[in-house]
Amino acid sequence: MDIKAYKTTILPLKNKLFRFALGVVKDAAEAQDVVQEVLIKVWDKRAELERINNLEAWCMRLTKNQAIDKLRSKHKRTEDIETTYSLSSSESTPFEKAAIGDAVDRVRKMIENLPPKQRQVIQLRDIEGFSYQEISEALDLSLAQVKTNLFRARQHIKALFLKTESYGL
Fold this sequence. Notes:
This protein is mainly alpha-helical. It has helices at residues 3-9, 14-25, 28-44, 55-74, 94-112, 116-127, 132-139, 143-167. The N and C termini lie far apart (53 Å).
């Protein structure tokens, strides 16, 4: 792979890799470090990339492993996460926008509190839009495990969300 192919196939993935790393390490600076290290590793292995069927899933797996290594080396987790949500709509009132923003924030917090595998699967599927097969390859899980983790994560979030809505929180 030459520099031009790298720029057109690998570099466009950096935002997805960042969001995924951020979901694991919970710190924007550390997530940037993870992505930078992954991009360097991919460049170093550019001669072997032709043998990889799904580069995006492979890069996601590298990101997951690098992020986990970063967590293990730091022995700490931070709770500060900066996520941008687009809530602008000309049809929504300010009250509706605020309510939507609050609901999105509650769901984001619920996702953060899921077990790691469920959190990773729901982020890749529902936020990043990966297919089940791509998630399976990226996280090194069987399709059944991907579907089970996604189902459990969604059920847990749904139950918590409905519970908080019934209490008016």
